[in-house]
């Protein structure tokens, strides 16, 4: 008698899981590329919508899987508390806003971004999963840079990228995306260097050089500040150890030397010299400069803070600064924009996750740990750069904040708030 034993087919499931992960990574890369490189030109509306629809579909599938696997929802409970708290505070600000329609539209858009972040949090279960997400983000930035560079031409657009009719004015968006991708890619650079994988090290080093060239060509002050601070903080934290202080001094010396050499190049002199001189003059003397855009930005920030003091707790409604402050544009400062729109409560809730995560990262800091070093450096770069950019409504910024949070949590596989002893 022939007996056929039933066996579970695990290999096909494994392959399907691998294919699904790669497909999700490709969709995420295309979504980042479309929203970074294609600007706001009406000719590319269909392409952006297609990429967005694909990413929403992939996220909904993952959401369905998470709901089916009820225990999996416990892994994202802390980001749920964070996101729900911020959105609730924002909802309260919308109710009492002079522009409730505009405020609620912004709230809906940001709620979708938080939904994507919850899905990413569910998907990232270990350092390997986090690394895959970082690769997708960096790949999206590289594709965006290549596309804009090809559209502008290597020597076109008066040396600046992301500022011409073909794609619209996306100088800051392209620069910030590329700058943070540089910082995140340092994780792969240092990891491949530590593991002595030369081919990978050369590949990631080439990615760093290309993205830095993109930032340099945009002429964005904020982008350059992100790169310099992110790299300097990463090198310092990676080499920080009491036993070998030479590495700290050597790392700082290398960063300073490279920046000084860069500042002497013709491209840097053309795109950045006057901008940084004006910025330095403004902060040292407190007087206006010839560059009117810088004066207007500081004027908007001060105006936003002045109006916020009239409604310090609840704010004037999410995303209403452009209409209520009279400038018809955002304030160019994330802190002023959030304080004005959501009040002190909403602002503290939004930045709570990054502050608690950084406290956790510095507590568990280990010399030579690339993941922790890059995450902590990213947090410092975000806190500084957000003085000159509005990013709270950006999915990309939420992804960077999630990376910092997951790096803090994955080290000991424990909830962030529980680690700090806070009662939620």
Structural class of the secondary elements? mainly alpha
Mean pLDDT: 79
Task: Give, in spatial order, the strands making up the sheet with the most strands.
Answer: 1-2
Main beta sheet, described? 2 strands, antiparallel
User: Which regions are unreliable across 5 or more consecutive residues at pLDDT < 50?
Assistant: 1-16, 414-424
The beta-strand count equals 2
Helix content: over 70%
Give the count of helical stretches.
17
Order of helices and strands: HHHHHEEHHHHHHHHHHHH
Description:
With 424 residues, this protein is mainly α. It has helices spanning 10-37, 45-68, 77-95, 100-123, 127-152, 171-194, 198-218, 221-239, 245-263, 266-271, 273-285, 292-308, 321-324, 334-363, 370-385, 395-410, 416-420; strands at residues 163-164, 168-169. Strand 1 (163-164) and strand 2 form a beta hairpin. Helix 3 runs antiparallel to helix 4, helix 3 runs antiparallel to helix 14 and helix 12 packs across helix 14.
């Amino acid at each position: 008698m022939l007996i056929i034993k039933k066996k579970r087919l695990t290999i096909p499931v494994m392959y399907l899981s691998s294919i699904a992960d790669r497909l999700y990574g490709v969709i995420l890369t295309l979504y980042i590329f479309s929203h970074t490189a294609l600007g706001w030109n009406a000719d590319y509306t269909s392409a952006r919508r297609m990429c967005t629809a694909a990413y929403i579909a992939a996220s909904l599938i993952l959401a369905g899987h998470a709901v089916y696997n009820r225990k999996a929802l416990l892994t994202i409970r802390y980001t749920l508390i964070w996101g729900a708290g911020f959105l609730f505070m924002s909802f309260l600000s919308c109710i009492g806003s002079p522009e409730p329609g505009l405020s609620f539209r912004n709230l809906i858009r940001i709620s979708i971004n938080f939904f994507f972040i919850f899905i990413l949090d569910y998907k990232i279960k270990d350092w390997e999963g986090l690394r895959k997400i970082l690769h997708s983000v960096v790949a999206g930035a590289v594709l965006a840079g290549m596309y804009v560079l090809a559209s502008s031409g290597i020597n076109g657009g008066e040396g600046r990228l992301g500022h011409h009719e073909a794609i619209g004015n996306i100088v800051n968006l392209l620069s910030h995306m590329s700058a943070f991708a540089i910082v995140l890619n340092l994780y792969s650079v240092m990891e491949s260097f530590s593991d002595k994988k030369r081919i990978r090290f050369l590949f990631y080093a080439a990615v760093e050089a290309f993205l830095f060239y993109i930032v340099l060509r945009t002429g964005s002050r904020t982008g350059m500040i992100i790169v310099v601070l992110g790299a300097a903080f990463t090198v310092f934290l990676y080499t920080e150890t009491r036993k070998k202080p030479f590495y700290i001094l050597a790392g700082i010396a290398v960063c300073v030397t490279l920046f000084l050499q860069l500042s002497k190049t013709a491209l840097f002199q053309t795109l950045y010299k006057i901008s940084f001189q004006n910025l330095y003059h403004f902060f040292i003397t407190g007087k206006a400069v010839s560059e009117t855009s810088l004066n207007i930005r500081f004027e908007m920030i001060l105006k936003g803070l002045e109006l916020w003091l009239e409604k310090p707790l609840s704010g004037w409604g999410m995303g209403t600064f452009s209409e209520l402050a009279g400038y018809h544009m955002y304030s160019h400062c994330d802190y002023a924009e959030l304080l004005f729109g959501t009040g002190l409560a909403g602002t503290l809730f939004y930045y709570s996750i990054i502050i608690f995560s950084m406290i956790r990262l510095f507590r568990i800091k280990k010399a030579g740990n690339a993941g922790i070093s890059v995450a902590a450096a990213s947090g410092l770069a975000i806190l500084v750069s957000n003085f000159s950019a509005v990013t709270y409504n950006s999915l990309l910024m939420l992804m960077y904040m999630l990376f910092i949070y997951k790096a803090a949590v994955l080290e000991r596989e424990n909830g962030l708030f529980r680690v700090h002893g806070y009662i939620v």
